[in-house]
Amino acid sequence: MEKQDLKQITETIRQSLQGERKIHGYDGLSQFLDCTKPTARKLIETSDIPRYQTGRKVFFYESDILTALKKT
Length: 72
Hints:
alpha+beta, Arc Repressor Mutant, subunit A, three-stranded antiparallel beta sheet, 62% helix
């Protein structure tokens, strides 16, 4: 894969995520869902909300949360 291909892929990903809201940490998730942290953790386990992690930092995408909750 060439450098130009990587730049094009990166730009495509940036454009698709533009405007996507990130929810940071379990505190942020519990505030977004208006519930306690244990309830938020339980929802992650039972409703397959995708969790992303960079090092020790955990975050969620708002659209992933809403999609997972619609399925349940």
